Amino acid sequence: MRSIWTGSIGFGLVNIPIKMYSAVESSTLDLDMLDKKDHANIKFKRVNENTGKEVAYENIVKGYMVDDKYVVLDKTDFEKAAPEKTKHIEIIQFVEEHEIDSTYFESPYFLEPEKTGSRAYSLLREALKKTGKAGVGLFVMHNREHMCIIKATDDVLILNRIRFAQEIRSHKDLNLPSTKSKPAELKMATTLIDQLTQKFDVSKYKDEYTDKLLKIIKLKAKGKSVPFKPMKVVASKTQDLMEQLKASLTPSKRKAS
Length: 257
What we know:
The protein is an alpha+beta fold. The protein has helices spanning 75-81, 83-86, 118-131, 183-195, 208-221, 241-249, 251-256, and strands at residues 5-11, 14-22, 62-66, 69-73, 88-96, 105-113, 133-141, 144-153, 156-162. The chain has 7 helices and 9 strands; from the N terminus they run ββββααββαβββαααα.
């Protein structure tokens, strides 16, 4: 794996030099965009708005409009904004992981210590395991500040980028029901939830859609067609919630679903 960020983690006076690696990889197929007429590949170009000519990537800079003029920024300008965060993640506080709403979670990364930080890395990893806590910190990557939590899983420290509160939209404009459930319906719904409750094992789940799409692609490559029956969204045959819940609780119905 190739590291995407190098720097350090600090908690108290302990400093740990680390490398950061993406913990995820896409499971989707890499599909190209083609011209419908002749299947020629569609290419995107960076074009100068004034001349219409293509601009090489190394000649592209970033700017911000102020009073109808662009202020051009270079690499050092981004670092000047928060030099202490471009190469360092200071753990500001520790929290119980369940205190952070899953809405805020964004992307996970593996953290690997440099040789000089191995002992301190192990110390933080074992301390997080023992307390069951996660560290909250801030850092800058790709010219943007990120909030993160750092937790220990097995023998690795994992950093999860999490969103700032202002990045989450309000749900106040949604048309949400205000009706209260009937006690009997609520009791039966909780019974159904209890029956379907198991310990979560992520390895049981797999991206099956990509595998099926690849099979269709291979069949089309051989000139074969794939039978298709569009799925329609249909309402339940009955509007009686109790009847639907009772039917859901029968083993035969649950196996068929």
